[in-house]
Write a structure and sequence with these properties.
With about 220 residues, this protein is of the alpha+beta class. About 30% of the residues lie in helices and about 25% in strands.
Length: about 220
């Protein structure tokens, strides 16, 4: 099933390539990494309708555009938490693939458990602690973590297989430029979808959108 979002979420990535098409890879990548964060920021602000405090956190060759504004709201009314919480959350993660310098933390490790605790207790059995940029591609923990639909993270669905294919491409082509951009449908830090993009070695962009909604996450298909 496809997902539809307000047209303001859409970024015309091919338009950004027009001015640099045919140039050396590093020039194209550098141009995109200079221009796209502004587009993602403006796009996010236009769609979220909440106060924002957006900053860039850089770790090695990856950067995280992050909205640190957090509004935990308390209500005496029986309103679902997702309807009232305004959580700090990622706007976009982007940069170049790098080799990890540390081993991947186990899901039961203290490092991983600091992120909301045990995943299934908070989000249900259809989610994992996912990485916007995989650890194997140089992604960190902390602000790089999010509740990711298990069928995507583990490659169980047709979407998930494409997601893993894109990650394998990045592993096989170290130093390529990549990005991950969450799309939100509420005020929480759990995205409704993830837009994952890679600048291929031939200078073309490979961008895919992956669902991250609970109704899809609970379905395990092979």
């Amino acid at each position: 099933m496809s997902m539809s979002f307000d047209h303001r979420w859409v970024v015309g990535y091919e338009d950004f390539l027009l001015d640099v098409r045919g140039r050396p890879y590093q020039e194209v990548a550098a141009y995109l990494l200079q221009q796209l964060p502004y587009e993602w920021r403006d796009n996010y602000i236009a769609m979220t309708r909440k106060l924002s405090d957006i900053s860039i956190v850089t770790e090695d060759r990856l950067s995280y555009l992050f909205d640190f504004h957090d509004e935990p709201q308390v209500s005496d009314c029986p309103i679902p938490a997702e309807a009232v919480l305004k959580e700090a959350r990622l706007v976009a993660a982007y940069g170049y693939v790098t080799k990890p310098t540390t081993s991947r933390p186990a899901s039961s490790s203290t490092t991983m458990l600091r992120f909301v605790g045990r995943t299934e207790q908070h989000f249900g059995g259809g989610f994992d602690k996912g990485h916007f940029i995989a650890h194997t591609l140089g992604g960190s923990v902390n602000i790089n973590l999010f509740p990711q639909a298990r069928h995507i993270n583990r490659g169980w669905s047709s979407e998930g297989k494409v997601y893993r294919q894109m990650e394998r491409y990045c592993c096989d082509n170290p130093s390529v430029m990549l990005f991950s951009r969450p799309l939100y449908s509420d005020y929480t830090a759990r995205p409704a979808a993830i837009e994952f993009g890679v600048l291929r070695t031939d200078g073309t962009l490979w961008v895919q959108m992956f669902t991250n909604r609970p109704e899809y996450a609970r379905t395990k298909s092979r």
